[in-house]
Amino acid sequence: MIHASPNVVDPHGSETYVRPDPSPTPQPSPETWWFKRETTDQHREQQEQLGYSTGCLEAIYTTTLLYLHETLDHIALVLLAYSILCVVLYRVLFHRAAGTAWYGRWLVRRSHLPPCNRALLVTAHPDDEVMFFGPTILELRRRQCRVFVLCLSEGNHDRKGSIRRQELWDACESLGVRAEDITLVNATHLQDDPTAEWKTVTIANQLLRQLESLDAELLITFDKEGVSVSVDTCMWCEDRFETNHNHNLIYFADCKVLTLETVNLCRKYLSIFDLPVTLLLSTNWVILSWRARRAVQNAMRLHNSQMVWFRKLYIIFSRYMVINSLREINKSDVEFEILDT
After folding, report:
1. Residue 338's CB: how many other CB atoms inside 10 A?
2. Is residue 273 part of a domain?
3. Percent of the chain whose predicted confidence (pLDDT) is above 90
4. Best label site of 81, 143, 163, 214, fewest CB within 10 Å?
5. What's the pTM?
6. Coiled coil: which residue ranges (predicted)?
7. What digits encode the pLDDT tens for the residues 160-212?
């Protein structure tokens, strides 16, 4: 056989095409074979590591979900048990047997306040007396205690001073406070302005006049974290009273001071579900029945000019509509707090 390239012409003039012999297959060198094997092994190891990592992540995710479900179940059970405890405790406080309340036989009572015949409540704005102190006012009136209300401003920030004045009178009368026992201060230095700072001396002078004229046995106001008169003002009054009115010292010496405890946001909107915490942490408290709670809510609705949407939610969920916890203070307590701060 003649080996020729394509398109080669033989002597007879005919063109002959001859298929060339196939070239031999090149054999891989030892270095190339080892490189391919090493690359394949590395790829296999990467796949195994990726699968192992994916499996670990899936296991962690599954375990986390399992623990999360178990934790949520436990939290739900605890909340359910706590809610049942609150409802049962609330029912026990107001259960009546044979026409007589038997909660007095228990260590837990629905109210624990110092006995008094004349009490002075000091607030900053109209509607404070119901929004925060409604249970205390109702309990004092139930005990036939005469309640005086001193409101230090008429709430004229929105040009509604005259309206809020009448609302204050209506709300207090609905809670059993006489119209002649309400004092509304309209002083230049005590205006309802969020940017204005009330001077302690001005507040103390107003408070001293009331204490001297009313002969109150119990003074009730906000604590130092509240929105109204601070406890330091009351103690300043006591110092001045002892210094300048020694002949009438017995009037203030016999007057106890209670401040409303300011609670955190969570407790503030727990309503009756704050009951166990209040009984454990407070020394003086008032807990209203469901019917009395509605009386406080109706009194709050008489402040119609302030009935915006969040006030309506406040009436439904706030603990201050059904529970008041108060702290009895003295001069040494305040001095300690001032030094500590």
Report:
1. 11
2. yes
3. 41
4. 81
5. 0.73
6. none
7. 888 999 999 999 999 999 999 999 988 767 777 667 777 777 788 888 888 88
Counting the structural domains of the chain, the total is: 1
- CB atoms closer than 10 angstroms to residue 4: 14
Taking only the tens place, the pLDDT of each residue in 308-318 is 999 999 999 99
Give the three-state DSSP class for 193. coil
Give the count of alpha carbons within 13 A of 332, CB side only.
Answer: 0
DSSP character for 113? -
| Domain annotation covers residue 172 | yes
Please state, in angstroms and rounded to a whole number, the distance separating the CA atoms of residues 99 and 301. 32
∠ CA 157-299-151, nearest 5°, is: 45
For position 279, which CATH number holds? 3.40.50.10320
Place of tokens 């094997």: 37
Give backbone dihedrals phi and psi of 118, rounded to 5 degrees, phi first.
-140, 125
| Cα separation, 164 vs 155, whole angstroms | 7
Q: Is residue 135 part of a domain?
A: yes
For residue 72, being part of any structural domain is answered with: no
* 39 HSE (CA, 13 A, CB side): 6
216 with 118: CB under 8 angstroms? yes
Distance of CA 86 to the CA centre of its chain: 18
For residue 180, what are the CA distances in angstroms to 75, 120, 192?
52, 13, 23
DSSP string spanning 3-65?
A: ---TTEE-TTS-EE--PPPPPPPPPPPHHHHHHHHHHHHHHHHHHHHHHHHHHHHHHHHHHHH
DSSP state of 271: G
